[in-house]
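anyone seen this seq b4? input:
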Amino acid sequence: MIKGQTIILIGIVAVVVGMLLIFIGSTFISGKTDGNNNSKVSTGGVILIGPIPIVFGNDKSMVSIALVGAIILMILAYILFYRGHL
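predicted toks r here
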């Protein structure tokens, strides 16, 4: 059985690694300029409030990608939280 302190430490490390990846990725993307100002940025995201996903984005393809990610997260949460009750 994993101790509670280990799970908390894993969560903190995951958040720090995620923040570092976002910082490094944005640094690489901002460094890529080809002189054209015709670049298009697409965004999308998911907010999970309990079992209800709220999906948003400014491009139809990004919304569909975020929706697939939300479904995967919901299935993963179901498996992790209810695996002993099956």
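Residues 4-31 form the longest helix (28 residues). The helical segments are 4-31, 60-82. kinda curious what u guys think
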